[in-house]
Structures
1.
Amino acid sequence: MKILAVCGFGVGSSMILKLTIQKALREFGVDAEVINTDISDSAGHNADAVFSSPDFIGDLEKRFKNKEIKLYPIKRYSDLEEVKEKVQDLIDSKK
Amino acid sequence: MAQNIPQSHMQIIENASNYEEAIQIASKPLLENDYITKDYIQAMIDSVEEHGPYIVLADDFALPHARPSEAVKKTGLSLLTVKDGVDLKGNTVKLFVVLAAKDSTSHNEALQSLAEFLMDKQNIQDVIACDRVQDIKKILDERWN
């Protein structure tokens, strides 16, 4: 499984989001690759899911419109509970 | 760079008239010590206007930053607490950590520590409660590793 953590620049917030996602994955005991990237590079990656700010989801929908991918809006990038909820949904969808 | 934020990069203020002013004040130690130029401060503010408030990574906490560019001379972090809080596009922020990244990797270690620190919400509240920068430094030294 591959997950993208996306923000405007791919260096700060998306890095924090990636670490929160990794922590959630560890707590679920699931192995997955997590990559942080900026929004303009995001569509160049093949992934199962994209985690990003609600402000970016509309833009991401357009960029990924021909791809089978799940988009998860995250309001607080370091909120482990919020991220865990979305990671759980993703894991369930893969079962 | 050092894992932690130097005490000389920390400030506590009572209030700020808006988030732009808070980011400017928070960035001052980085500006005065030649980590960044004024352009970087403007870029951080423009980013909020362009991309929205996602730099608010946790309740009460924001990580202002912009793309690595010529406007960053050295990678570094600075910290500001605003006791009364300031509105950032509908979110109240009391703790700002400014990230100046010279490239996309040099700050990763510091961000990893920061991410771990932020996942415990109590840490954020404890920093906000401090009245002296020495006390903030002490919390970071103890819990940010």
2.
Amino acid sequence: MGMCPEHYIDYMHDYLDGDITREHEQELKKHMQSCVSCQKHMHELSDTVAFVKSATHIMAPPHFEANVMGRLPKRKNVLGIQKWLRRHPIIVAAAVFFLLMGATLMASYPNDNQFSVTTQPNLVVDGQTVIVPKGEVVKGDVVVKNGNLIIEGEVDGNVTVINGSYMASTAVVSGQIEEINETFDWLWYKIKKLANDAMALFE
Amino acid sequence: MDALVNKRIKQVLKGDQNAYADIVNLYQHKLYQICYRMLGNKQEAEDIAQEAFIRAYINLHSYDQKRKFSTWIYRIATNLCIDRIRKKKPDYYLDAEVAGTDGLDMYSQIAADEQLPEEAVEQMELQDRIQYEISRLPDKYRSVIVLKYIEELSLQEISEILDMPLGTVKTRIHRGREALRKQLNNL
């Protein structure tokens, strides 16, 4: 067979794969009519294919399915959470944002019970109580921490009382009045303040 | 069948583990057969076929439902088989005595990787002979021959399963056939 050009062998394989062109097939047939060794080679290849194809079908053992089901990993919550996280990236981003924001704001939550008040000249401080005297007009925002506020006069601005109480009977306040006692109130107040400051930047 | 498979896959992905039983049931024989023909050993074939189903289950979320499930899971199985074949070789010394077998060495444990004497081969039953000849093929030819002639898959599917170009699959099938032809005619 060594005498025959290599490409006849290639044609044989193309023929066995079922993708030989018509011209090649005719060329191969013509060649094989006169070449015993190529005939033999082709026969051997066909026999080889028939030999492998005569393999019986093998079945999986009867307990196979049950064994696989028994070996499956139990559904872990971790997997579920991971899947959920993968599907909701925006919620995850928002959650991380709030977590970090919250941590920052918490850090600034007044843990000390120190009494403090904004310094306006006409505020009267009596122990832990701040008084806006009758007839007086206090300009600007008034913030009282860990103390009470009594307004008898007028405030031209916002009033905020943190961890204390606010008393006003006939008060005139041009801005908003807020009383903050809880942590969440405090957070909300801080966030609003941040937002207001940010708005102020753009104005 | 594909519609049923995709329905079951969706159920599994939603958390219904039992829906996976139908998938195992549909593909168990095909998958086991590939593994058995590749590895030539029932115990290993069962091991690897089970492993393939478990890997498929764990990675089910990464399966692209637009493609054929059989192609995907056959690929997992053939990769595991090829890994196993490659690992098996340097894992132990062939002439080391096997513990508790009283003088038997590893040669007697290997199904058919080594060439047997001619008379022994001639006396084999046809089915044993087929498995023996397949096992003697180098693993890169073995996988294409098994997929083509035992599983009767198209060249296109084989190229997807083995993740290699169609031309490479053809070349390997040609060489695999030649190798088998030589094995059969040496006797």
3.
Amino acid sequence: MSRNIYSALLIFVAMMVSTLAFSGNQQHDHDGHDHSGHSHDQDGHDDDTKTADHDGHGHGDHGHTNSCGIEMEHGPYSPGAAAFHHISDQNIYNIGPWHIPLPCIMYIHGQGLDVFSSGRFAADAHGVGRKAYNKFVLFEGLASRVIDPSFPEGEVELGDHNVYALPEMINGKENEVVYVCYNGKSWKTESRSTLDGGVFGGGLTTFTDFSITKNVMSMLIILLFGFFLFRGIAKSYVAREGMAPKGTQGFMEPIFLFIQDEVCKPFLGHKWEKFQPFIMALFFFILFLNLFGQIPFFGGSNVTGSLSVTFVLAILTFLVVNLNGNKHYWEHVLWMPGVPGWVKIFVLTLVEVMGLFIKPLTLMLRLFGNITAGHMIITIFVGLIFVFGKSGENVPGSIGAIFGSTVLTLFMMAIELLVAFIQAFVFAILTASYIGAATEEAHH
Amino acid sequence: MTGSLAAIGAGLAVIGAGIGIGNIGAKAMEAIARQPEAVGDIRSNMILMAALIEGAALIAMVLAFYG
């Protein structure tokens, strides 16, 4: 069975290399962006990553001009662009109407570490900074650095709407480049820092971003939550030995046992006790993060829908599978018995070696795709209000769409609850089956 | 009209995966109806197979939108 699947996946080899680059510059790759609507002054409405409400505001027929004389053109409200903005990582954490600043940790090559709070940017309701700090500016919650060395260090007052993005063609793709307006002049900023430093595309950067972003913060929160939850459960197992489970313990035990009985025991083989902690850690980490991302008005973090996070999870799986692979496993990957030599050299070994990498690649893409799609659909359904209401001009349209959108959004969120469980389960079951296949003993 | 070819590609990928996962679901239902006591085994294997098909479809979709 597995060989058929590998040969069907033959055409995806080219993907392997390019994926590295994708994971780096995903922030900038979305087509058809129109964020210009954000330049409008918003008077005191909530900015939340789930509600998308500000994107629809104030799309009149006039544009806003900033102090550099750049006319912000207002295209029609674009639900896709708004959704992309809301699922991206940010340097600030929004809980309802509140902006919680997060630490920015920037390593500037040749200069050393620069640590400061993103509160220094004095972000407005859109996450667009009113101030620059040490050449860093904030645009839609994301920090970027001015290229020109003559831009002043330290805190610089910019005023409203003076950080903006313009589309620019880079390598045949339309990307957004963030500009800063200061002293009546436009200053270009660098692209986002990536793990590869921009070697695989996205442009070389003079700094590396180690900031505690919204996603990192969510992961830390979930880490602490998981730690205290499971510590409490472990304690009650000790305290209530021999008695029926109670409280949280009683709630978590069936879930734990379900994974143990449905995933670990059948798929991991005779060594299931050795690998069960890894599978459980993966399952609960992904499950909690999926569910955490579902909470409306609470940051709406899209952690498991971020390629970087799923990439690391997939790498962990790859390492655990291949470091624990026994002689039998490697024999079947590299020099399988019972097949003519030329078939091995030209076809099967090639396919099997590719399969080693395709397995974690699909794990990564599956989780990313499912969670991102869910988040995007919810934001787009909310955006229906602005599509039907012509961005606030057509009040009856808005009111009608509010009811439709509420029903659709609730329906989608219910489905997403299901998907949160299914994807965590699927990630665990696939990891378990890969580990099981790698550690299975020979039975010729 | 930018991106419309990519959308067609994504749609084709979804059709393929839809047929595949539909077949798995149908056969699993049949199998469960024939042998209700094997429901646990069938369910995990059904999800496993659906996930593998979904993986291929997802790669196609990512290629369509990011490639």
